[in-house]
Amino acid sequence: MSLDLKLRCLSKLFIRSFCISPIPKPLKSVKLRSNKSYTKSFVDVKNVKAIGGKGGDGCISFLHLWCNEMAGPDGGDGGHGAHVMFKASHNVKDLRNILTQIRGSDGVNGRNKDCHGKNADHEIIEVPVGTIIRNNKGVIVGDLSREDLMFVAARGGAGGKGNHFFLSETNQAPKICQRGAVGEHIEYVLEVKSMAHIGLIGFPNAGKSTLLRAISRASPKIAPYPFTTLKPQLGTVEYDDYEQITVADLPGLIPDSHKNKGLGIQFLKHAERCLALIFVVDISLPKPWKTISTLQFELSQFSEDLAKRPKIIIANKVDILENKENIDILRQETEMKVIPLSAKLGTNVREFLSEIRKIYDENKEIEE
User: Which runs of E-coded beta strand occur in the chain?
Assistant: First the structure.
């Protein structure tokens, strides 16, 4: 454990022991929300082709001097091609800016007078910490779990030898050289293991995007007509102890998603990369507790580990709730904590932010 992490843990233990501030308070962002018409979605899976650089060709040359017209072979070797490597970095959050085809630079050809070609600089691509690398058969071949950890995706070709290399006692004037080797060409699937600390899960039109806009500066699409989010959107919640919690608005789930209906397996993989899950339910529906049982069933069918993640229930849209007994019945039907709120009006949003901070603190050791 590093010294900085020890100091942070001791300071938090001191604060909690003396009850200075048991739960850090969320901060309201002073920066205005972007008014751009487009939104940037989170890209957590990408297929890439890694192509190593070609090695430089060797050179065939013979040295001619004023004092010796047959000074012998002087063809230089070609330079090595560049490797393609992935490097884990905290400076990158997703795979949005990574190209689908990454090609390393070629080595420089050899020249006369024993001038060797320059080796190409390696192509280093930064990826988020926690990126999993799979080959085209789906087998995990790399796990970049720590910062600055690197994975060689495609090796560059070796440089070819010039004719000076083939000089021997029996062959004083070799007229042969080698061509540079071709670099490797391999396909991979990059997956970000950890997408967000908190994932918002629910049926379409439950108000997940509205809730994300209410607690962060994220700008997911919202509208008064029914539709569903197709790609995950991320927002960040800041607290007064300088801690930041990332919340993800995941695409809507439907029954039989574990059978790959709707967004299906793609959606459930998004949920698998969250530390904790928040069930967002439209409490104005006639029987909202049936939604919870469906969500739990779909998660358990996909992964037992996913079903054991920390979860709370958000009873959204209390501003249009006609039957107030729905909240009491929902609490009786489930053992999870239920927080009634209105994402549109901001009712009980601060209580919700305090609750996700508790979940974050309890499960932070697992993440680290």
Answer: 45-51, 62-63, 72-73, 84-89, 101-103, 123-128, 131-135, 140-144, 150-154, 185-192, 196-201, 233-238, 244-249, 274-282, 311-316, 338-340
Contact 77, 160 (CB under 8 A): yes
CB 75 within 8 A of CB 59: yes
Which residues, in sequence order, are CB contacts of 341 under 8 Å at separation 6+? 211, 314, 315, 316, 318, 347, 348, 349, 351, 352
In the chain, alpha helices (H): 3-17, 208-215, 264-272, 289-302, 304-307, 325-333, 349-367
- How far apart CA 238 and CA 245 sit, in angstroms, is 7
pTM of this structure: 0.67
Q: What is the DSSP letter of 111?
A: B
C-beta of residue 184 within 8 angstroms of C-beta of residue 208: no
Q: What is the distance between the alpha carbons of residues 14 and 17, in angstroms, rounded to a whole number?
A: 5
Residues 6+ apart with CB under 8 A from 246: 195, 196, 197, 198, 234, 235, 236, 237
Q: How many H helices and E strands in the chain?
A: 7, 16
How far apart CA 79 and CA 109 sit, in angstroms, is 6
Per residue in 132-176, pLDDT tens? 899 988 888 998 888 889 999 999 999 999 989 988 888 888 988
Per this entry, what is the length of the chain? 368
Report the alpha-carbon distance of residue 177 to residue 73 in Å, rounded.
11
- Distance, in Å, from the CA atom of 18 to the CA atom of 299, rounded to the nearest integer, reads 40
Q: In the prediction, which pLDDT does 18 show?
A: 46
